[in-house]
Structure formats: structure tokens, C-alpha cells
């Protein structure tokens, strides 16, 4: 049997390959942050719920006066259900608020210039204010009479 193998290798030439093992470098801190922030956005948007229950991107409701069908972004009266765009909008608001708190953290560094510190605090305040108030508006659209 070994003679057969020797016979095969006398006909076939084995290539002399110099293979290098692939080297993977560590990702930068901003790459890791971007991946984690995108994951944060997707989880808060309810992508897992959207994959499991596969709701529509928007719903439709019939206008009582005209009888025409109108698109509806918020799934009303169901706190534990959502349309896809509704979840993406809510996830964007939560991510905007989170980004505002990250800007506050950047403004707190010692080496930040005074002008940049003031701009970061202003941008953070606006981001947090907009995110909070739009989230409340979303809740009021979802549940009529919420916080009255």
C-alpha cells in the first residue's frame, strides 16, 4: 500500500506553499463604540419583537367621516405592541437621549476648551430635552389621555 502512495507522489508534484496565518488586529475604540451604539439602537427599537411577530411597517385606520384609509404609525391602545416605524422612532429618541448624556460626559473632561464645553452642554441639553419630550408625545399618541 505504501508503494502505491509513493507511485502517486512520483507522478503528482506537491506544491510548495508558504501560507501565512491571518492576523486580526484589535478594532479601534470608536469602532467598538459604534457597533455597541448601533446594537443599543436596534434593541431599543424592538427589532427582536419585529422579527418574532413581524408586524407591518405602518397600520391603516379608516376615517369615519370620509371612509378613506389613512396610514397610522402608532399602534394605539397596545403598550406591548408596535409597528416597525414606531419602534424605530422610539429607538431613535432613546438613542438621542443617550447621546446627550454622552455629550455631558465629554463636556466634563479637564482638557475641553471652555467654548467647546459650553457648546457640548448646550447640545446635550437640547438632545435630552427633545428626546424626553418627543417620547412623551409618542406615549400620548399611543395611549390617549396619558398624563392628563
Please render the helix and strand layout as text.
Blueprint: H1 2-11, H2 29-44, H3 47-53, E1 59-62, E2 69-72, H4 84-107, H5 114-142
Antiparallel strand pairs: 1-2
Q: How would you describe this structure in keywords?
A:
about 150 residues, mainly alpha, two-stranded antiparallel sheet, 2 strands, flat
What's the gist of this structure?
58% of the residues lie in helices and 5% in strands. It has 5 helices and 2 strands; from the N terminus they run H-H-H-E-E-H-H.
Beta-strand residue percentage: 5-15%
The end-to-end distance, rounded to whole angstroms, is 90 Å
C-alpha-based Rg, rounded: 28 Å
Helix content class: 55-70%
Strand order of the largest sheet: 1-2
Low-pLDDT residue intervals, each spanning 5 or more residues: none
Major sheet, described briefly? 2 strands, antiparallel
Overall 3D form:
flat
Helix-strand sequence: HHHEEHH
Oligomer: single chain
Q: What is the count of β-strands?
A: 2
- Structure classification: mainly alpha
- Discrete helix count: 5
Amino acid at each position: 500500500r505504501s508503494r502505491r502512495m509513493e507511485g502517486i507522489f512520483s507522478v503528482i508534484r506537491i506544491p510548495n506553499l508558504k501560507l501565512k496565518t491571518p492576523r486580526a488586529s484589535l478594532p479601534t475604540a470608536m469602532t467598538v463604540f459604534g457597533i455597541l451604539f448601533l446594537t443599543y439602537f436596534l434593541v431599543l427599537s424592538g427589532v427582536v419583537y419585529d422579527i418574532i411577530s413581524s408586524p407591518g411597517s405602518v397600520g391603516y385606520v379608516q376615517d369615519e367621516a370620509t371612509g378613506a384609509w389613512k396610514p397610522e404609525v402608532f399602534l394605539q391602545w397596545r403598550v406591548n405592541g408596535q409597528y416597525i416605524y414606531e419602534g424605530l422612532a422610539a429607538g431613535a429618541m432613546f438613542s438621542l437621549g443617550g447621546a446627550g448624556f454622552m455629550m455631558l460626559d465629554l463636556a466634563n473632561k479637564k482638557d475641553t476648551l471652555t467654548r467647546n464645553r459650553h457648546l457640548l452642554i448646550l447640545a446635550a441639553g437640547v438632545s435630552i430635552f427633545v428626546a424626553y419630550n418627543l417620547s412623551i408625545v409618542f406615549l400620548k399618541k399611543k395611549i390617549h389621555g396619558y398624563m392628563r
